Amino acid sequence: MTLRRHLGFLVFVALAVAAAAFVWFGLPHDREVKSLWIFLVKLLPFVFATEAVARLDVDLARRLRLPLLLVPAAFLVYFLYFVPKIFFYGAVESGTRDAYYNLYYNVLTLTPLIILSLVLAYRLGRGDAATVRRLAYGMLLLMLSGLEDLAFLTVNHHTDPAYSTIPAVWEWASHMTVFIGHPPTKYEAYAFITVHVLLALAVFLSPQRWWDALARKVVPSRPPEAGETPDSRDARPVQHESV
Known about the structure:
Elements (H helix, E strand, L loop, with lengths): L1 H4 L1 H20 L9 H19 L3 H6 L3 H27 L3 H28 L4 H16 L2 H9 L18 H7 L5 H20 L2 H11 L11 H4 L10
Helix pairs in contact: 2-3, 5-6, 5-7, 5-8, 6-7, 7-10, 7-11
């Protein structure tokens, strides 16, 4: 019975993954739309993924703490693959150093906005304030960790000898330099990344009660009114959705 209840979600997840793999690996990465059919096929992963998300059992997801796993995972796909690719191709195609710096600044400004958009969507879906903070601060730690710098060196095909192997000193990593006082060596950068990732994991995996207690300190709860219990105050009507 449980499997049947979630069958629609699982089917659309499988369809989304299969369609995305076909589009990414089976079709050319053309800028121009060559035909209506190719255009429609390239929309299928989005449509299937949307239908999967719409069929997700929210209560089960919360019990399994999936928001603390899936939201950072979605962010990391963007941040550790597409951002390094944007910077790599931007460096090749921009033509001037100023143009590349403008691209770099805009993408780095966009990234916190994406984090805030993800946690805003979670909050608007009646997500709790404690998890909003955990998601936002944990993903911020991942953003500042230097993982993207490492990904830039590893996911791209570098022909420049300076970047064909991991550089001994990361001269460009100014966000690390301001913390340690000098451009980090390769191993100092690894240590910097490791510390930030461990801190992010601590934020994501620490007991929920710690964050609930912090939320109560930041925004003290009001006393219940006459005839109201603490549980009923946050209760919301059950909505039956058609999928």
